[in-house]
Amino acid sequence: MHSLTLLGIESSCDDTAAAVVRHVPGAAPQILASVVEGQTALHAAFGGVVPEIAARAHAERIDHCIEVALAQAGLSLAALDGIAVTAGPGLIGGVLSGVMCAKGLAAATGLPLIGVNHLAGHALTPRLTDMVEFPYIMLLVSGGHCQFLRVDGPADFTRLGGSIDDAPGEAFDKVAKILGLPQPGGPAVQAEAAQGDARRIPLPRPLLDRPGCDMSFSGLKTAVLRARDGLMAGLGGLRQQDRADLCAGFQRAVADVLTEKSRRALLDSGVAHFAVAGGVAANTEIRSRLLALCERLGVSFLAPPLALCTDNAAMIAWAGIEQFRQRGADDLTLSARPRWPLDQKSPALLGSGKKGAKA
Ligand code: KG4
Ligand code: ZN
After folding, report:
1. What's the N-to-C CA distance of the chain in angstroms?
2. Ligand 1, from 172, 217, 308: best to mutate by most atoms within 8 Å of Cβ?
3. Which of 229-238, 313-322, 333-342 ranks highest by mean pLDDT?
4. Residue of 280, 283, 354 best suited for mutating to test ligand 1, as the one with most atoms within 8 Å of CB
5. Is the confidence at residue 159, as pLDDT, over 70?
6. Taking CB atoms and a 6 Å cutoff, what residues make up the pocket around ligand 1?
7. Is 119:159 a contact under the CB 8 Å cutoff?
8. CA–CA separation, 143 vs 166, rounded Å?
9. What is the pTM (predicted TM-score) of this model?
């Protein structure tokens, strides 16, 4: 095995990102640069990511991101061994911006081009940060992702289950909206929950008693809405304590579901390593419940730093390194794919995540 230094490019949703990662066999991978330019402000007025605005912003910013990443790494294009780019799934305009840029660079320099699945980037991150051995179980929980994966190799993923409707981050954001809290909802709900009584208002744990690892969060969000309306009808308004109790109850319900389904994924698979990624993995109650579960089961718990759990290009460069070693490069016919399930064997998901805005 040779040492490899790859440029990674990510533009599948609302972050334009470029990174340089080097791997010398036998040593820990090194992130030489990682640049992320978010677009939150551009979309704020529209209440969600607008695909056309995202695509234009990616096209405008991607060259600059790459220049900054190369400058941070202190490298020229000629010093690289390849270019890895997110080729899907995601918003097609954004993915195209990245793929076209990467193809142009590959054609101009003769460097190998590696098309990477965005979800493979997330799923291989624990190897970038902790050099975990295969196999491991991965729980992706964010505003757009919610699935359990068994990871057996750089391109060997088995989907064990996932949300059949909303992703948990989406549910946190909607609950915040229902209760008049600011966005993003996760941190706001968590802060309120710290003052609340999780047992006061009974809320459902959807699909908890069903076998397998599938989950549902949409009914839970509706139950919070009903409970809020019930309290408001009785009291003529929502007191500070009611809001805190609703947040605490909701957060506990999400933590219960994620912990129980994680327990099943680990027991059914017999796998000894468990990793989490995604913005929701930042939630302290959820994180501590998952950590406690792993300690009880004697399983190692891996939680990469948040900057590498959310969308970034270091994970794409790293997945590119792992996959290039295994299968070589793509050619210039590489195409952008809006849909690209990681596990081709498992049935298609029914509308999980932000309805295609994030895959
Ligand atoms: O991974 P991420 O930054 O972006 C994607 O959606 O891919 O995740 C963002 C999501 C948002 O829905 C946000 O409300 C949620 O993660 N989140 C949290 C917390 N911090 C962020 N949810 C619960 N608790 C938190 N502390
Ligand atoms: Zn992502």
Report:
1. 33
2. 172
3. 313-322
4. 280
5. yes
6. 142-145, 169-170, 172-173, 184-187, 190, 278-280, 282-283, 310-311, 358
7. no
8. 9
9. 0.91
